[in-house]
Design the sequence.
């Protein structure tokens, strides 16, 4: 069984991804907003490895708290609310 903290993080990523999709943003658009300091292709690759698996490890990249806060701000939501929803989803 996966450790609950891992399940929470994965649930958060799925939740953020679904909410970004619901706003009509492509994966690359959302990535550019989340990491504006990075080149668009670099930002898109980062979001892809967070959502999926990194080629070098075969595991998803973790989400930094600073990145989670930035994602919440982009979505116009409170980070603690998103984490609470993700926590409930992870329990299922």
Sequence:
């Amino acid at each position: 069984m996966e450790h609950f903290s891992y399940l929470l993080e994965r649930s958060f990523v799925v939740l953020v991804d679904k909410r970004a999709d619901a706003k009509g943003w492509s994966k690359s658009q959302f990535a550019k907003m989340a990491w504006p300091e990075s080149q668009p292709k670099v930002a898109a690759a980062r979001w892809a490895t967070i959502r999926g698996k990194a080629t070098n490890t075969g595991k998803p990249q973790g989400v930094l708290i600073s990145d989670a806060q930035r994602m919440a701000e982009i979505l116009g939501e409170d980070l603690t609310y998103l984490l609470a929803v993700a926590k409930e989803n992870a329990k299922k």
User: Anything to note?
Assistant: The chain has a mean pLDDT of 94.
